[in-house]
Amino acid sequence: MDEHRSATTHSPEISDSEGMIEAMGTPVDEGLAPRILTRPEHKLSRKDLSQEAIKVLYRLHRSGYSAYLVGGSVRDLLLGGRPKDFDIATNARPQEIRRLFRNSRVIGRRFRLVHVFFKGEIIEVATFRASPEPPETPDDWEEAEEEAAEEEAVADPPRPHIVEDVYGTPAEDARRRDFTINALFYNIADFSIIDHVGGIEDLERGIIRTIGDPDERFVEDPVRMMRALEYAARLGFEIDPQTAEAIDRQKALISEASTPRLTYELLECLRSGQATAIHKAWWKAGVFTRAYQDLPLDTDESVRVLEMVDAGVVAGRKFSDPSLIGGFFLPRFLVLAEEETDEKGRVNNVRLLDRLREMLEPAAASMHLSNQTVHLIHQGLFAVTKMRCAPERGHQVLKLARQGYFPVAWEFFVFAAAVGYITPEVHQSWKRALRKVGKQELTDQQRESAQERPRPHRRRRPRRRPR
Ligand code: ATP
Ligand code: MG
């Protein structure tokens, strides 16, 4: 793999003609030729792409730019799966992309990229980039968004954070990526797959391998270790021995990684439908406790909650961030609730609320959780203790069901029923009571997730991701 990292003569200016030569499969800046699979040699078909992704690829191509589908979508399509989202790389510069798509916005701080908005889907379009530097965090993005808006308002804007040499060639863009299987390009010009890093072979053999020296790549960005284990669990792949050994050597660095990005990876894991397997892999490799020091997750009940989340996601349910993160705290909270309940079943609310706050505070701070998320977890968990007995009166149900935190509380209630804190009879009586007061949507959601149905074509959530 090292040879693939050999330096290239970097040319920050990528002309359109270079793009077209690249599109024809001839590397212009490399001593090493990429491997190219022509259209009949692979099974990725245009009809597997979303209409929006096709639209963006073609508009770039017809405007004279090179345009590739890149990253996870190419990997997933070659494996016969459905991608979560479609990312595009091009030689067009952010302002040029912006001009081509009215429904777009420039984002990113040091490295600017463009989000093209469609109904329910965002296509991310990035100019080929040279630098392998760690992805940015949402905090950077927020500032950058303001800057970008100001720049657009000025004819010749000063761009203090943008350094031209962040842009690179397609080969450099492939090599700055994390794993070989994530660096394949699908070329809209001739429908070929371009592989600069040995990704096709690794995809065929089921191997997760860093691009370049694994120690260097993990030091550069420790979150990649979490990602390697996550992909292995999700795809049922093996981690290449050198990559695995480097994880073992470098895992201590994870506790210094950017917390918003770690929280983002956790939420991605929880929404993948394979949280149980990913968590197990993280736990076994000794990275979970380093990444999420303040999350209690050490009991069978916690694993049961993860299994329920997986079952829900596979059935097409959407969980909110507070219900996913709060799920980690539920088993320990239930122990606290037991401890604060006397033999007559009365709960010492003041003490329980205090202990709940003490339990959540460290994680709230170390994981950069928003006040709103913490509030919903706090209220939602506490509400479960109020639902331990069957509801007595309709207005009690309605009052609770009208609270903003109730959808989160209901998720926790269902988890609590699965781990035996709520009896099946009480569970059923709350379901009936909710239907009676016209709040059946929550219980219907559950019924739906009980039936296995094919996973819908998942569109990207319109929210920013740290990169
Ligand atoms: P998923 O199915 O989880 O979305 P993905 O491969 O699309 O998987 P993303 O997090 O969406 O993962 O990132 C898109 C692409 O960006 C990756 O495929 C990879 O090429 C590149 N990438 C993401 N994170 C990193 C990183 N930390 N270091 C280097 N490259 C990265
Ligand atoms: Mg993706």
Using the alpha-carbon principal axes, give the shape: elongated
For the record, what is the CATH homologous superfamily label of the largest domain?
A: Beta Polymerase, domain 2
Estimated radius of gyration = 24 Å
**Major β-sheet, in short?**
8 strands, mixed
Number of separate strands: 10
Low-pLDDT segments, ≥5 res: 1-29, 447-464
**How are the strands of the largest sheet arranged?**
1-8-7-2-3-6-5-4
Strand content: 5-15%
Broad structural category: alpha+beta
Task: Count the DSSP helices.
Answer: 22
Number of domains: 3
The hetero compounds bound to this protein are: adenosine-5'-triphosphate, magnesium ion
Question: Can you give a write-up of this model?
Answer:
This protein is of the alpha+beta class and 467 residues long. The chain contains 22 helices and 10 strands. The chain folds into 3 domains: 206 residues, Beta Polymerase, domain 2 (2-Layer Sandwich), CATH 3.30.460; 83 residues, Orthogonal Bundle (Hydrophobic Seed Protein), CATH 1.10.110; 130 residues, no CATH class. The N terminus is likely disordered. Helix 15 runs antiparallel to helix 16 and helix 19 packs across helix 21. The longest helix has 19 residues. It is elongated, with a radius of gyration of 24 Å. The chain has an 8-stranded mixed beta sheet with strand order 1-8-7-2-3-6-5-4. It has a two-stranded parallel ribbon with strand order 9-10. A hairpin with a 5-residue loop joins strand 4 and strand 5. It binds adenosine-5'-triphosphate (ATP) and magnesium ion. Magnesium ion binds next to loops.
